[in-house]
Amino acid sequence: MIPGARIARISREVKNFERKSPWGISCRPQTEDTYDDLLVTLLGPKETPYERGIFNITVKIPDKYPFEPPLMKFNTPIYHPNIDKGGRICMDLLKMPPKGAWVPTITLETLLVSLQTLLANPNPDDPLMIDIANEYKSDIQKFMENARKHTEMYATGR
Amino acid sequence: MDVDNIHDLFHNSSYSLPTLLDKLNILFTLHINQIDSFDLNIVDYKLLEEIKEYSSTDGINLYFGKTLRDIKCVIEDDIGRKHEIFIYSFGSKKLHVNATLPCSHLINHDYESLGDIVRTFTKIVSDLSCYFHQLEQIDQLCAVMDPESPTFREDYRRIYLDDRTWLHVEVTADGLATNIHLVGNTEEWHNKLQTGLLQWDHDKNIVENILTMFELPSFSFPSAISPTKEVDDISVSVCRICLCVELPGLCGLPQPLCKNYACGVFFHRACLYQWLIACAGYQLADFGVATGLCPNCLQPIDCDEKDN
Question: Closest Cα of chain B to A97: distance in Å?
Answer without folding.
Answer: 6
